[in-house]
């Protein structure tokens, strides 16, 4: 009898262990796991993670989205440069071509430092036609000198005299020159160009813009850059937004 008990003891113990093991009940219901009170969870048991469609879509678009900001910045920079060049070209055209015809002013670039520090080389002098009888000592005028090549000069009036035939003659001087100009200019016509404004350094930019290469770049390069910027904005649309919207719609549909 003891021998039977010795043989049956381990067998019964093994069946009881199997019975205890069978007491572990796992029921998958809507993605959740339930266990009975008698279940003992071993460390070897691996939990099952439920991944939503939105998380899957987010993981799928992480790599492409990383390049999105750089493409957007590049497209924005190209658009800004193109628009800036177009605006600059338009302003230069209006200032040099349209403005004098509509508003009546004239522009000239100061080439020397004879009127420094008020007018420096490279500055643009803006003048308006002024009746000769209205000018006075101290005014700055732009006129053709009566000697040499009769170049255009912009100097300050230091003396006004009347000629024998009733005309007006002026003595001028550059502010930075030690002496007066070695000539007396008789003003011709009814008006003389009087300085009303000075735009610093613009003359240098105008001279550069008048260069054929720069002018062609403005005429053809600016529209090309603008078109490239527009195409870049189309190519650099963020794909993560489209994927996220699609994932959200899919999740909403599965929730229904």
Write the topology of this structure.
Elements: H1 2-22, E1 27-29, E2 32-34, H2 53-60, H3 62-103, E3 106-109, E4 124-131, E5 140-144, E6 152-162, E7 168-173, E8 185-186, E9 191-199, H4 202-209, H5 212-235, H6 239-255
Antiparallel strand pairs: 1-2, 3-4, 4-9, 5-6, 5-9, 6-7, 7-8
Helix pairs in contact: 2-6, 3-5
Note down, in words, how this protein is organized.
The protein is an alpha+beta fold. Helix content is 47%, strand content 20%. It has six helices and nine strands.
Across the major sheet, the strand order is 3-4-9-5-6-7-8
Listing every helix as H and every strand as E from the N terminus to the C terminus, the arrangement reads: HEEHHEEEEEEEHHH
Distance between the termini: 67 Å
Shape: elongated
Q: In percent terms, what proportion of residues is strand?
A: 15-25%
Record keyword descriptors for this entry.
single chain, alpha+beta, 7-stranded antiparallel sheet, 9 strands
Short description:
The protein is α+β, with helices and mostly antiparallel strands and 256 residues long. It has helices at residues 2-22, 53-60, 62-103, 202-209, 212-235, 239-255, and strands at 27-29, 32-34, 106-109, 124-131, 140-144, 152-162, 168-173, 185-186, 191-199.
């Amino acid at each position: 009898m003891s021998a039977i008990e010795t043989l049956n003891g381990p067998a019964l113990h093994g069946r009881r262990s199997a019975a205890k093991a069978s007491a572990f009940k796992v029921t998958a219901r809507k993605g959740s796991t339930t266990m009975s009170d008698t279940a003992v969870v071993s460390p070897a048991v691996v939990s099952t993670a439920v991944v939503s469609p939105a998380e899957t879509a987010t993981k799928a678009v992480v790599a492409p989205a990383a390049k999105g900001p750089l493409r957007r910045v590049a497209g924005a920079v190209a658009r800004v440069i193109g628009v800036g060049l177009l605006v600059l070209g338009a302003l230069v055209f209006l200032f040099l071509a349209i403005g004098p015809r509509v508003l009546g002013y004239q522009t000239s670039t100061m080439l020397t430092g004879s009127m420094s520090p008020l007018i420096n080389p490279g500055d643009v002098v803006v003048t308006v036609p002024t009746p000769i009888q209205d000018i006075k000592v101290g005014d700055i005028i732009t006129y053709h000198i009566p000697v040499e090549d009769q170049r255009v000069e912009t100097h300050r009036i230091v003396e006004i005299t009347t000629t024998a035939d009733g005309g007006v003659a002026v003595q001028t001087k550059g502010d930075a020159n030690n002496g007066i100009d070695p000539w007396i200019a008789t003003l011709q016509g009814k008006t003389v160009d009087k300085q009303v404004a000075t735009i610093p350094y613009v003359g240098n930019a105008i001279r550069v813009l008048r260069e054929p290469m720069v002018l062609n770049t403005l005429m053809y390069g600016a529209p090309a850059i603008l078109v490239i910027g527009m195409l870049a904005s189309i190519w650099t649309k963020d794909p993560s937004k489209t994927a996220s919207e699609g994932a959200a719609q899919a999740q909403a549909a599965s929730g229904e």
